[in-house]
Amino acid sequence: MLKTVSITIAVLAAALLTFAAVRPDSFRVQRSASIKAPPEKIFALIEDFEQWGKWSPYEKLDPAMKRSITGAPKGAGAVYAWEGNSKAGAGRMEITDAQAPSKVLVKLDFAKPFEAHNIAEFTLAPKGDATEVTWAMYGPQPYLARLVTIFFNMDRMVGGAFEEGLANLKAVAEK
């Protein structure tokens, strides 16, 4: 009986490890919202890290979070670093490209609770009297992350935060 249980556990573990190995080695999470404001107004809220406190859901994870904004005042070269509690973690963002008023690329480096290096991309496209804003994050998904995401749905977790952030951005921009 013990031998059968051991073999079953070994087979299941091997199947799980194999399943993780064949999953995609990159990921993309994306959400969009229609905001009744001109792209220029929304772009100004995204390209300036000083404005993120008004709309980013990540700013609320730790009220005592240490933040520093350095580099360019906004746009390409602006840098935002943070260190917070276990929910906020620690890391650094740098705007690498800002094409007014349609696109902002952010290099996102997490140090805690785990190391990860991704890209956040904001695109803004006018649509009638509104602007379609898309917030995406993409990057490599190493083996350990592929294994973890079997049990934790990254699209749901990160996507939910993006939906909240876009709703906040909408509220601020439409004032």
Give a structural overview.
- The protein is α+β, with helices and mostly antiparallel strands.
- 31% of the residues lie in helices and 37% in strands.
- It has four helices and seven strands; from the N terminus they run αβαββββββαα.
- The protein has a seven-stranded antiparallel β-sheet with strand order 1-7-6-5-4-3-2.
- The longest helix has 20 residues, at 2-21.
- The protein is elongated.
- The mean pLDDT is 92.
Fraction of residues in helix: 25-40%
Contiguous uncertain segments of 5+ residues:
none
What portion of the residues fall into strands of 2 or more residues?
Answer: 35-45%
Strand order of the largest sheet: 1-7-6-5-4-3-2
Indicate the structural class: alpha+beta
Number of distinct beta strands: 7
Radius of gyration based on Cα positions: 19 Å
| SSE ordering | HEHEEEEEEHH
Characteristics:
31% helix; elongated; 7 strands; alpha+beta; 4 helices; 175 residues
Please give a quick description of this structure.
The longest helix is centred in the first third of the chain and has 20 residues, at 2-21.
Helix and strand layout, with pairings?
Blueprint: H1 2-21, E1 26-35, H2 39-46, E2 66-71, E3 78-83, E4 90-99, E5 103-112, E6 116-127, E7 130-140, H3 143-148, H4 154-173
Antiparallel strand pairs: 1-7, 2-3, 3-4, 4-5, 5-6, 6-7
